[in-house]
Amino acid sequence: MRLILMGVSGSGKTTLGEDLAAKTGWPFLDGDDFHTPEARAKMAAGLGLSDGDRQPWLLRLRAELLAHPQVILACSSLRRSYRDVLRVLDTRFIFLDVPPRLLLARLQERGDHYAHADLLPSQLDTLEPPDRDEADVMTLHVTPQDSPADLTRLALAALGLPHAR
Ligand SMILES: Nc1ncnc2c1ncn2[C@@H]1O[C@H](COP(=O)(O)OP(=O)(O)OP(=O)(O)O)[C@@H](O)[C@H]1O
Ligand SMILES: O=C(O)[C@H](O)[C@@H](O)[C@H](O)[C@H](O)CO
Hints:
GO terms for molecular function: ATP binding; gluconokinase activity. Pfam families: SKI. It comes from Deinococcus radiopugnans ATCC 19172. By secondary structure, this protein is of the alpha/beta class. 44% of the residues lie in helices and 15% in strands. It has helices spanning 13-24, 37-44, 51-67, 80-86, 100-109, 120-126, 148-159, and strands at residues 2-6, 28-30, 71-74, 91-97, 137-141. α1 packs across α7. The radius of gyration is 15 Å and the shape is globular. The two termini are 16 Å apart. Bound molecules: adenosine-5'-triphosphate and D-gluconic acid. D-gluconic acid (GCO) binds at residues 9, 31-32, 43, 49, 54, 76, 78, 115, 123.
């Protein structure tokens, strides 16, 4: 399975991805590591990326997915058209749906990252939640009470994967 963790900045993709990778032994790729320096600088300045900025990045991530039949990828995948680029054989998505207030609190707390809270409005504007026909997307409605361990358990159960390696 190629598992893609989607959601806006601060939704917890990296946290969940690293935990799932530790549990499953599958490799973990973070979409953040594939941005160009220019794209990072733009986001660090609080400016959202355009479709044109994201296109080469999505194509790089698609190539990574094709090269890794069993992998966990953190990628915001905000628009339907972006998800369609990432849809290769045996792809599943988990959408981390987090209330904006919780996202804001997390991003204000997080220090060591180029994406700050000022990027959040453009992330939320760009987000297209999964359409009804996107049967390969499973949504996790995250509350402030859900610890990383809770979300890992829910994700593993939803995917039908064993809970421990
Ligand atoms: N379940 C959780 N409970 C509490 N805090 C969390 C949870 N998941 C993630 N966090 C915290 O929220 C912040 C954002 O998480 P993370 O970096 O994993 O998000 P992300 O979706 O990968 O963000 P980005 O796309 O900007 O890289 C981090 O400081 C992380 O420690
Ligand atoms: O599509 C996007 O705008 C980007 O993927 C962003 O979401 C960042 O990569 C990330 O979320 C911030 O670190």
